[in-house]
Write a structure and sequence with these properties.
The complex is a heterodimer of chains A (440) and B (793). Chain A is α/β, with parallel strands linked by helices. Chain A has helices at 7-14, 21-24, 54-57, 98-104, 133-142, 185-217, 222-246, 268-284, 313-317, 324-350, 407-417; strands at residues 42-47, 63-64, 82-89, 112-118, 125-128, 152-158, 172-174, 177-178, 288-295, 364-369, 385-388, 398-406. In chain A, the strands form 3 sheets. In chain A, strands 2-12-3-11-10-1-9-6 form an 8-stranded mixed β-sheet, sandwiched between helices. Chain B is of the alpha+beta class and 793 residues long. Chain B has 30 helices and 19 strands. In chain B, strands 1, 2, 4, 6, 7, 9 and 13 form a 7-stranded antiparallel β-sheet that branches. In chain B, strands 3, 5, 8, 11 and 12 form a 5-stranded antiparallel β-sheet that branches. In chain B, helix 16 (446-458) packs parallel to helix 18 and helix 28 (722-737) crosses helix 30 (763-775). Chain B is globular, with a radius of gyration of 30 Å. The chains are: A alpha/beta (440), B alpha+beta (793). At the A-B interface, strand 4, strand 5, helix 6 and helix 7 of A face strand 10, helix 10, helix 13, helix 14 and helix 15 of B. Strand 4 (112-118) of chain A pairs parallel with strand 10 of chain B, so a sheet runs across the interface.
C-alpha cells in the first residue's frame, strides 16, 4: 500500500465503487495514512450453549428491526446497533457428535480430527483441525505494531467445566491447540493487573526495607560495607523506577472485584458480571483487541435456579417443541444470556473510546452465538448469530435472512471487517463465494 | 565487568585457539588465570616493566616515593596500551607501540585490572550473598518446611495400579505392582499378570522422580490412547493428552527443575474412548493396538526412557521450584561465590520474591492452614520469617516484618504478600551472615554457626534439628558442632553438592561436547555419550557415599559402571539390556576416574585423543598447579598432514619450541600417560601402526622428579602425592565454603590435610571437617604477613 499513489487509486484497484467510499474510510486498511489515527477495532465472541427456541428468537422477516421477540428483548436499547443473521448454517461434518462439531467447528470452520472422545452419537473425535477466527484475527492484529496489544486476545468463561475435551473448547490457536478459557475472575484479574499489584506491594515495603538496610549496615565491618552500600543503591533505583512507572499505569481505575465469589453454579450471575466488567476494562486499557467469552460448555447443564428453573439446561433443551413449559423455560434462559450481552453492550457504550471518537461499542463487534440451531433436533442449521456494535463496519439495525449459507462465509466476513482479507477460512469447500453479501 | 571479562578472554585467545574444538573445558573459571608461578618464564612485558617502569612505579606497581600511588584502575587493556604509548615514560621519548603492547597486558593482568586487584588482595572471609543455587534451595526449603517431609524410600520404579475399566475405580483394580520404568507395548491384548478386556483398561503410576541436574527437563509421552502426566503439581497436568485427536501419539512438555531434589509424579493411561460409554458397541470386535512410554530429555542429554534409578515408588510432597532466572554467580576464582552484587542480580531477587509470594499466597490454605484467618496467618508469617532469616526474631524485627505489615495492609492476603516480599528482599535473608564475626566460640552466635554448617554441607538454610540445637545451646562446643556436621554429611541431601564438586573438579560440569567421528567410532552415539556421564556419576556416588569414601579408591579402582550398551562399545561381554553395574574394565591399564572413559572422551578431539587437554586438567585440577595462557594462538596440527605420526609425536612436534616447553613439558608429560586411551576412552595398543608410548613424568613443586610408565603409575602417584592431596583439600574447601581457605588462617590447609590423611583419605570426613572449620570462629589478621590462628581447635 505504501507505494500506491493515491487512496483513490488503491480503491479503484480493489474494484470498489465510489458509493462504498464513505463507509470504507472507516476501515483501517483504507484510511488515508495522513488522516486521523486509525480506529481501534475490537471483537468479542460470546458463546451460550444448547441451541435456542426459534419461535422466541428469530425475527419474522428481513428488514429494519422494530421490535425483538422475547429471547432478544433485552437488546431493545441497542436495536439500531444489532444485526440478526438467520440462515447461516454450520456445514462441517465428519467425526464427532453434533454438540462436539457444534462448538469445535463453530469458530474454526473445519472438521474435527478423529480421536477418542465419544459423543452421544456419531463417531469419536478429537480436537479441531484448524485455528479459530478469534485467534486468526488476533494473530493478524498482533502482527502489526500499530494494532499490537499486550495480550492480543483474552479468553473469558463462566463456569466452564474443569475438564479439557471437545465439548469445553471453542477457541483454537491452531490444529490440536485448544485455548483454555479463564473462568475465574480473580485469576483473570491477576493476569490483567498482577504486575500493577506487584508494583504496589513492592512500593509498600520499600521504606521498611531501606530502614533495615540502614540498621544492618552498622553491624558489618568497613570492608564489607561496600557490597551492602552498592546493594542499597539498587534498592533506591528500584524505588525510583517504581515511582516513574506509576505514571505509565493502565490509565483507568483498576476494577475492584467483589471478594469471595467462588466458582459455583448459583454464582453465575455475579461471575458473569465480574467477567464482563474485567473485559470492558481490559479493552479500555487496550490490553487486547479480541476476546472470547464462553458460558459453560457445549451440552452445558447449568441450573438457572435464580430464574426459578430447577432442571439443567441441556436436559431441558431435549424437550420437544410441544412441551410449552420447557420451551418457555428455555426462552427465559436465553433471555438471561441476552441480558448479559445487553449489559456488556451497555458497559461498552458507556465507556468513551480512549483517545478517540465515540464509545467502545462503536468500535467493537460482539458476536453472540451457539453450538446448535435448536437443542431438541441437534441441528447445525440456522446457528444463532446476533451481532452488536460497530466494530466491523457492518450495517446494523437489521434482520437478515440467508438461504442456507455456510458459516465459513460469515467467518470470512468478520476477518474482512477487521481488514484481514483472507479468501478462505477453515474448510475451503465452504468458502466458495467469499464473504456474505448484504452485511455492509 | 563484562568488558573486563572480554579482555581476559582476549588474553586467553591463544589458548582458546588451540582448543577451539573443545570449548567447554576452558570457558569457565581458573582456565586462564594469568598468574605466574615461579617456574613460568619471565615475559617480554615483565622485562620491559622492570626496566622502564619499575624504577618509579615499584617492582609490583605498588608505587615508590617518586610516584606514591599504586597502579590500579579500570581502563580497558587497549586504553591502557594507548595511554602508555602516548605518555610513558614521561619525557620526550615514550615507549614504542610495539613495546607498549607487550608491557600493558602484563601490567593489566598482574596488578592493574579490578580482577587483578581482587586476586592480589589478602585473603579474608568477606560478606557474601547467597549464591544462585543457595537462593533456589533456600526458598524451596522454607516453603517445604510447611509441608510434610517425605523422603523417598529405598527402591526404584513407580507404584503401578492396573484397572479393568477406563476409569480408576478401586473396585475394578486387577493388579498392583512396581514398574521399574514405563515402556509397554500391549499390542492388541491387555497387560500381563491379570484378566483385562483388550478394549478397555487403564493404568496409573504414582511415586516420585529425582532430577539429577538443575535445568529444563523435557518429558516425552507416547501412546495411541489417553495419557496425562503430572509432575510436581497435583492439580495441573504437565501433559494432558486425555483427548486423543488426529494422528498424534507423541506429546512433549518442558519443566524447569532444581537438581538433587525429588518431585511427585503421576502418570495415567487409559485405553478406551472417553466421553459417552460405548463399551457395548465394541464387544466382539478386534481391539486396536496399545502402547505407552514415559521418556525424558535431561538438560543437554539425549532422550531416554526415564530410568528406574531416577524413580521411586514412595510419594513426596510438591516442591516449590523457583523459575525466575538469575545472572550466573562469579566463578573467577574457580568456585561459585556470592562476593558481588549487580543490578541484574537485584532485579532477579525482586522477581524471585514476587514469584515466591505468589506461590505462597496461592497455596496458603495448604501451607498456613487457612485462607484468611489473621491470627493463623500471622503465626505462619512469623515462622516464615524465622526460617528465612535463620534465627528467632527480636521484637523490633517482628514488629517491622510482621505486625506492621498486617496493620497497614487492606487485607490479610496483601499482608502475607508484603511480609514475604520484605523478607526475601532483606539483606538478612540475602546475605549468608551479617555482622562482625565472633573471634571466639564463647561469643559466637549459635544461629550463625547453624547457617554456616547448613550452607556448607547442603547449600541451604538450617533444618529444624539444627535450629533446635542452636536454640538449646547444643551448638556451643566444637564436639557439638562436629556432631551436627556428621549428621548432615551422612544425609542424602549432602550428595548433590558433593557431586557438583567432582564434576567441577574434573572440569566436566559444563557437559563436554562428545560428538565423535562416526566413521572411526560408529558405536559412539549420543546415547552412549550420555551413558558415560551416568557411569561416571554412579562411580563417584558409589565411592564417595560409601563407608570408606576413599580418595585413593577414586583414583585407583579399576571398577567402571557399564550397562549393556557401554559394554558393547568398550568390549565387555554383558547382555544387551543389562543395567548399570560395576565391571572390571581393562584391569591392567585403567585406574580410577582419571581413566574413566567419560573423562578421557571429554578431553579428546573428534577422532584423536588430546594429551594437551588431558594434561592441562591434570596439571591444574589434580596437581593444583598454575598455568599461564600460551604466548600466541596455535591451531593444532591436523592429523591428516602427518599421517604417519602418532598423536604423541604430533603434539611433541608442535610444542617443541622453547617458548612452549616451559609449560608443555609439564602438560604433555602428564597428558601422555593417558595415551593408551583413544578419543572415546577405549583402550588401544597402537596408533598409525606404531605402538603406543604412554610414558610420562612430573616434577613436583618441591622439585622431585618422577617417571610414569602409564596411567596406573600416574594414578598411584596422585593418590599418594602430598601436593595433589593439598590441591584437593583446598579445592573442596573453597567449593564447600565459597570463601578462600587462607581466610581461615594459615593453618587451615595443613590441619585439614593432616586430618584427611588420618581419616584414611575419607572424602566425607573431609567434607565434614571443612564444614566444622568454616563454622568455627576465625581471628582477624594480626599482621601483614598472615593470619593469626584461633586457638579453638
Amino acid at each position: 500500500m505504501a507505494n500506491r499513489n493515491t487512496r483513490r487509486q488503491f480503491i479503484r484497484d480493489l474494484g470498489l465503487s465510489a458509493a462504498a467510499l464513505p463507509f470504507l474510510t472507516n476501515l483501517p486498511c483504507l484510511a488515508a495514512p495522513d488522516a486521523k489515527p486509525r480506529r481501534k477495532q475490537r471483537l468479542i465472541v460470546i458463546f451460550s450453549p444448547d441451541g435456542i427456541v426459534p419461535t422466541t428468537f428469530w425475527p419474522d422477516a428481513e428488514g429494519p428491526i422494530n421490535a425483538f421477540k422475547e429471547s432478544l428483548s433485552p437488546l431493545t436499547p441497542f436495536k439500531d446497533k444489532t444485526l440478526i443473521l438467520k440462515g447461516v448454517c454450520d456445514k462441517i461434518r465428519g467425526d464427532g457428535d453434533g454438540h462436539m462439531r457444534g462448538i469445535g467447528c463453530l469458530l474454526t470452520g473445519i472438521e474435527l480430527f478423529p480421536g477418542n472422545v465419544q459423543g452421544g452419537s456419531d463417531t469419536p473425535a478429537g480436537w479441531s483441525s484448524g485455528i479459530s477466527i478469534d485467534q486468526e484475527i488476533k494473530n493478524y492484529l498482533q502482527a502489526s505494531p500499530a494494532t499490537r496489544t499486550r495480550f492480543g486476545s483474552l479468553e473469558f468463561g463462566v463456569m466452564v467445566p474443569e475438564r479439557a475435551d471437545t465439548w469445553t473448547r471453542m477457541s483454537y490457536a491452531g490444529a490440536n491447540k485448544p485455548v483454555s478459557p479463564i473462568d475465574d475472575p480473580y485469576q483473570m484479574f491477576g493476569k490483567l493487573y498482577g504486575n500493577l499489584k506487584d508494583r504496589e506491594s513492592l512500593k509498600s515495603v520499600l521504606d521498611d526495607l531501606k530502614q533495615d538496610f540502614a540498621r544492618v549496615r552498622t553491624r558489618v565491618g568497613a570492608q564489607d560495607r561496600q557490597i551492602l552500600d552498592e546493594h542499597a543503591t539498587f534498592v533506591r533505583e528500584m524505588e525510583q523506577e517504581l515511582k516513574s512507572s506509576n505514571q505509565k499505569d493502565v490509565g483507568h481505575p483498576v476494577p475492584v472485584l467483589e471478594p469471595g465469589v467462588h466458582r459455583d453454579n448459583d454464582k453465575m450471575p455475579q461471575l458473569s458480571k465480574m467477567q464482563i466488567d474485567l473485559m470492558v476494562n481490559s479493552f479500555a486499557a487496550d490490553f487486547a483487541r479480541v476476546a472470547t467469552f464462553q458460558y459453560t460448555n457445549s451440552v452445558g447443564q447449568a441450573r438457572f435456579r435464580w430464574l426459578d428453573i430447577q432442571e439443567g439446561q441441556h436436559d431441558l433443551s431435549h424437550e420437544p417443541d410441544n412441551n410449552t413449559v420447557a420451551q418457555e423455560k428455555l426462552t427465559r434462559i436465553n433471555k438471561w444470556y441476552c441480558e448479559q450481552i445487553a449489559y456488556l453492550a451497555k458497559r461498552l457504550a458507556e465507556t468513551p473510546e480512549p483517545g478517540g471518537y465515540g464509545n467502545l461499542l462503536d468500535n467493537t463487534l460482539i458476536v453472540w452465538t451457539n453450538e446448535l440451531g435448536q437443542g431438541n433436533s441437534h441441528t447445525l442449521d440456522n446457528i444463532p448469530f446476533a451481532l452488536i456494535g460497530g466494530g466491523a463496519g457492518f450495517k446494523m439495525g437489521r434482520s437478515l435472512q440467508y438461504n442456507n449459507v455456510p458459516h465459513n462465509r460469515l467467518l470470512l466476513s468478520i476477518a474482512h471487517g477487521f481488514g484481514h482479507r483472507v479468501t478462505r477460512f477453515g474448510n475451503p469447500d465452504y468458502c466458495g463465494d467469499g464473504p456474505l453479501p448484504k452485511l455492509t | 565487568m563484562l568488558f573486563q571479562k572480554t579482555m581476559l578472554w582476549a588474553s586467553g585467545v591463544a589458548f582458546l585457539m588451540l582448543v577451539a574444538t573443545l570449548p567447554n573445558q576452558v570457558s569457565g573459571q581458573g582456565g586462564m588465570k594469568p598468574v605466574r608461578n615461579s617456574s613460568a618464564p619471565v615475559s617480554a612485558g615483565e622485562k620491559i616493566f622492570a626496566r622502564e617502569c619499575g624504577p618509579c612505579h615499584g617492582s609490583k606497581g605498588e608505587g615508590t616515593a617518586a610516584y606514591p600511588r599504586a597502579l590500579a584502575g579500570n581502563q580497558s587493556l587497549s586504553q591502557l596500551t594507548n595511554y602508555i604509548a602516548r605518555t610513558m615514560p614521561p619525557g620526550a621519548k615514550h615507549l614504542p607501540l610495539v613495546d607498549a603492547k607487550k608491557v600493558a597486558p602484563y601490567i593489566f593482568d598482574a596488578f592493574y585490572s579490578p580482577l587483578a586487584q581482587e586476586r592480589n588482595r589478602p585473603a579474608r572471609v568477606s560478606l557474601s550473598r547467597l549464591t544462585v543455587p543457595q537462593y533456589r534451595n533456600a526458598v524451596a526449603d522454607i516453603v517445604g518446611s510447611f509441608r510434610s517431609t517425605g523422603v523417598p524410600d529405598k527402591g526404584e520404579g513407580l507404584q503401578a495400579q492396573y484397572f479393568k475399566a477406563r476409569r480408576f475405580d478401586d473396585r475394578e483394580r486387577v493388579l498392583e505392582r512396581i514398574d521399574p520404568e514405563v515402556q509397554f507395548d500391549f499390542k492388541t491384548g491387555g497387560p500381563q499378570g491379570g484378566e483385562f478386556d483388550p478394549h478397555q483398561f487403564s493404568i496409573r503410576w504414582n511415586g516420585s522422580i529425582v532430577a539429577p541436574d538443575t535445568g529444563v527437563y523435557e518429558f516425552i509421552v507416547r501412546s495411541e490412547h489417553s495419557v496425562a502426566l503430572w509432575i510436581n503439581d497435583e492439580n495441573k497436568p504437565l501433559i494432558d493428552a486425555w483427548v486423543k485427536s488426529g494422528k498424534d501419539t507423541e506429546f512433549r512438555a518442558s519443566l524447569f527443575l532444581v537438581g538433587g531434589r525429588v518431585y511427585p509424579i503421576r502418570f495415567e493411561f487409559s485405553k478406551s474412548t472417553q466421553g459417552v460409554d460405548d463399551t457395548d458397541k465394541k464387544k466382539g470386535k478386534p481391539a486396536p493396538p496399545a502402547s505407552v512410554s514415559l521418556a525424558w530429555k535431561r538438560p543437554k542429554q539425549p532422550e531416554e526412557i526415564v530410568p528406574a534409578r531416577c524413580l521411586f515408588p514412595a510419594p513426596v510432597p510438591e516442591v516449590f521450584v523457583l523459575t525466575a532466572p538469575f545472572p550466573p554467580d562469579d566463578r573467577s576464582m574457580g568456585y561459585e561465590r556470592g562476593n558481588v552484587v549487580s543490578k541484574e542480580w537485584d532485579e532477579a531477587t525482586t522477581a524471585a520474591a514476587l514469584e515466591t509470594a505468589d506461590y505462597i499466597v496461592k497455596h496458603r490454605q495448604e501451607l498456613a492452614g487457612t485462607v484468611d484467618d489473621k491470627t493463623q496467618l500471622q503465626a505462619f508469617c512469623r515462622k516464615f520469617v524465622e526460617r528465612a532469616l535463620r534465627r528467632p526474631l527480636d521484637t523490633e524485627t517482628a514488629q517491622r516484618y510482621i505486625t506492621r505489615q498486617f496493620d497497614i495492609s487492606p487485607n490479610t492476603e496483601t499482608a502475607v504478600k508484603r511480609v514475604i516480599l520484605l523478607t526475601l528482599k532483606s539483606p538478612r535473608f540475602l546475605y549468608r551472615e551479617l555482622g562482625v564475626p565472633a573471634t571466639a566460640l564463647a561469643s559466637a552466635d549459635p544461629y550463625d554457626t547453624a547457617s554456616r554448617l547448613s550452607f556448607a554441607l547442603w547449600d541451604t538454610i538450617p533444618d529444624e534439628t539444627l535450629l533446635k540445637a542452636a536454640a538449646s545451646g547444643a551448638l556451643a562446643t566444637r564436639e557439638q558442632i562436629a556432631q551436627q556436621a556428621e549428621r548432615m554429611a551422612a544425609d542424602r541431601r549432602a550428595w548433590p553438592k558433593q557431586r557438583d564438586f567432582f564434576f567441577q573438579w574434573l572440569k566436566l560440569d559444563q557437559y563436554p561436547d562428545l560428538a565423535k567421528d562416526l566413521n572411526r567410532f560408529p558405536d559412539f552415539t549420543p546415547a552412549v555419550a550420555a551413558d558415560l556421564r551416568t557411569s561416571l556419576d554412579l562411580t563417584l556416588k558409589n565411592v564417595v557415599r560409601s563407608e570408606k569414601s576413599d580418595f585413593r579408591e577414586l583414583l585407583l579402582s579399576d571398577k567402571v559402571y557399564l550397562n549393556g550398551r557401554l559394554a558393547k562399545t568398550y568390549g565387555v561381554s554383558l547382555p544387551e539390556n543389562a543395567p548399570f553395574q560395576p565391571v572390571d574394565l581393562d584391569p591392567t591399564a585403567r585406574a580410577g576416574i582419571l581413566t574413566h572413559p567419560y573423562f578421557l572422551a571429554g578431553f579428546a578431539y573428534r577422532a584423536t585423543s588430546s594429551p594437551i587437554h588431558r594434561g592441562v586438567v591434570l596439571t591444574r585440577s589434580v596437581m593444583g598447579r598454575v598455568l599461564p595462557p600460551p604466548p600466541a594462538a596455535f591451531t593444532p596440527l591436523a592429523a591428516s598432514l602427518h599421517p604417519n605420526l602418532t598423536t604423541r609425536q604430533r603434539v611433541s612436534l608442535q610444542t617443541t619450541p622453547l617458548g612452549c616447553q616451559s609449560c608443555h613439558s609439564t602438560i604433555n608429560s602428564l597428558g601422555f600417560t593417558l595415551e593408551r586411551f583413544d578419543a572415546i576412552g577405549r583402550l588401544r595398543s597402537a596408533e598409525n601402526n606404531q605402538p603406543i608410548d604412554a610414558t610420562g613424568s612430573y616434577e613436583s613443586k618441591a622439585g622431585q622428579k618422577v617417571k610414569f610408565t602409564g596411567a596406573q603409575d600416574l594414578a598411584r602417584y596422585v593418590a599418594d602425592s602430598d601436593e595433589a592431596q593439598a590441591a584437593f583439600v583446598e579445592k573442596l574447601f573453597q567449593f564447600v565454603v565459597k570463601q578462600p581457605i587462607r581466610g581461615y588462617g594459615a593453618q587451615a590447609l595443613p590441619d585439614l590435610k593432616r586430618e584427611f590423611k588420618r581419616s584414611g583419605y575419607n572424602i566425607n570426613r573431609l567434607t565434614t571437617q571443612i564444614a566444622v572449620a568454616s563454622a568455627l570462629p576465625v581471628a582477624p589478621p594480626t599482621d601483614s604477613k598472615g593470619l593469626k590462628r584461633v586457638t579453638q581447635k
